[in-house]
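Hi support team,

I submitted a single chain yesterday and got back a structure, but I'm not sure I'm reading the token output correctly. Could someone confirm the output below corresponds to the sequence I sent? I've pasted both exactly as they appear in my results page.

Thanks,
R.
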Amino acid sequence: MGTPKDSEKTRARLIEAVGSLFAEKGFNGVTVREIVSAANTHLSALNYHFSSKDALYREVLLDACRSDTISQSDQRLLLGLNPGEALFLMVKESLKNYTSQKKNAWRIIILSRECRQPSKAFDEVVESYFRPETDFVARIIASASNRMENDYPVKFAVITMIGLIETFSLYSQLIDAVAPGMDTHYKKKDRLARQITHLVLEAADPKSKHQK
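Hi R., thanks for writing in. Yes, this is the structure output for that exact sequence:
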């Protein structure tokens, strides 16, 4: 008889095995047969750990969320810094995390796909992950720009930050094709992180002057 630890390992293996499938094809594009094949298991084992395809997809999404969440300890650390420094550090670490996950990028891709093609789990993902994360980033940006967290310019700045980080992390080949050498230039001395930080602060408070 398997132990609870064995069961937990099996669930984690199933999630890892099918995550790339869902990221590539979306929920509706993946069949149960493909899931069983990718996980190298039997339908009975799949049903034992996950009651349905919907339940499996939900767990895959939540796993992706957990891997991309700012921990409570990191939040406390960031809140103890100068807001501008905290914002720069968030941008820098986000860029680094995207780079480190490129070899197994399904978690990044599936969250991006979920935003474009919401599933039944979308509202839960928004409440448990996207909203808390964006609220925290808004708190830092608001402090750095002397604005209120709920101001539209601050929310716009949050979205600007997310968009810039994802663009430079996911579309490096395109960027190099249309602007040869720019990627290499901005990787030196954290130039990209500093430029994104500057643009985010400008988006939050365009009337103020922020140093690069």
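A quick pointer for reading it: The two ends are 60 Å apart (CA to CA). Let us know if anything else looks off.

Best,
Support desk
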